[in-house]
């Protein structure tokens, strides 16, 4: 066994948490063996389909759990055992961005979809192995068998050389309790190469082996990212930077391919050409970035004709589909609620319904087939024969189904296998002299997803059984919350009552967790919001800290009562920057899932870290998750918690993105080199009334989030790559400024923000004088907004001279410090913000630097 060191950079930051060796390969085999042993009794009892599918589920769930722990490690620095994630699927550049775990999952997703489609269409032919069935193949046994063969096809890695032969031996040993099964799985898993460089006895010899081989090719571990042309970098420049970083890994002893292969790729990047064919043993680009637009079609010709080869004389057909489900306009449902329980309950209920649809797909096909079930929708790879109505049975029940109160959209579209690798067929040809980077960023899985989602978004929205009814509702019989539906239970309609019950169940489950009991119902245990709190409690207990500081109210009146009637509330609305662009850069499903998981867990753990940071600083955190789906976040905080939360969230994002001090690897490996900004833009709206209408608070916060996003686009993204939190906030009365001084974001302090440019222009035109300023000092403890407005209306001396005079004359140092911080917070949006980039900070303009120095002097007096 090779003792070489391997490296798998993060697909978003190119950072490496630690090296991998043959030891990780051994750990993976041990974990697979444990999964089989856990379910061996089912096999012995004759429940063969159950044994195989539960074993496959166990492997997939282990991979997904390691993906979660890997991203937690990125943000908090604690090491976890994650061999499926840190071991690359291919050691060679550029494929070393893909983990072995991601490649296993996507290969299985394609293989099981093809196999089940062919089974359902009667195209599999005679039974290949006796244990698959007596006279005809058993569908559940087939499903489990093909999933396991696909999941384990690369079990012989590392190293890549001769891995198929080792896969045969390892798989046969793991399933040794049944010789027939072990031999069949070993052959089907190991015969996944069909090129001329593969010996005849190692090539696919039957239909199941060929299915795994095509699935392996479609999920290709060797193909990686293609950079789109941007205003900042050409695709060629970005690819050359990536290659230089890869060579840095090689210089410090990591196996990423031969010097000859790297030189050939460099020539290719510089508008060259690489001679290769399918299963070429050296450099593998599969014809991508070649100046000849037909190179990739020629190199992948057998994959292009996969359906014809699989189906044979029975005709052409598409065997794999993408499926999409969503409840459109989540915020429109959430906004129906006027009480906390109904408002937040709708969001939780929709999240549960998405996970319920996802669960049903996982049961019928496999958990590896669900690409995403967050953000208010479900996206999955399925057989073309997949019957969508089957997974909706029950949830659409007109009497008890939760979906009966919602409009929904479900859409399925069939594709050729090769389209998952080469992008939509209509973009394969006709590129002429256009840039290969433009061409091959379009000929990709990311583009296929974009096409599919475009079709899905224009598909029919289906009315639910309840909403489809025509009825007249007396005004005195309408629901007190939504004012749309008739009362059914008390003052609430059926939908609002269901939402209210959902929030109460969620909150009760949180209270049980705080009391040491972790036994939520099936509706709550899948919720992202609940699992963040569960993990927060776990991390607090693990560090020996008390969990009583986690406070999720049943009504926001609790916050007012606990603070003598003077509590503040804050609406926090956030959205990811460039998340869609990053996903569209993915050339394969393997890369798409890796990027999607990265972005999803950046949000997940930055939220958890923000909550934890707040507790560490003040002993408690008061919050409610109003909306938490994908990169769409709306939280409600007690006002004085939101800034600590934001600070902690920002720190977590930067920890995940930039380099960590120390670590196992040399700085060339641990230093991050992100190629795009993928931070989070947020808006915070504060009110001193806990009964402030949720819908209005959300709208204000959403408007501020839009200002942050525009600032990110125009000021941050042209200069920074990586992640961080950019925040705008305002309130009618906000007096605290200590938090503002260290708050790492954009700070706006006007009640009537019409636009960032207008706001900055107005301040720059304002004039001040010493007399006016002395008069204004009395307002600083009372109302920062009033102070700011009065300053805007003042006329007089230059602002810098004014502060010099005040520094010399003012005796109240605390007031001076607060005043300086106030104006720094107003001025910072005018120029570069102090967002950390690694250990560096962006340079501020002279006036902001002056104010920082002035503040320091004031503090030292």
TrEMBL record:
Domain of life of the organism encoding this protein: Archaea
SUPFAM superfamilies: HD-domain/PDEase-like (SSF109604)
Occurrences of domain HD (ranges): 102-219
UniProt-recorded name of the protein: HD domain-containing protein
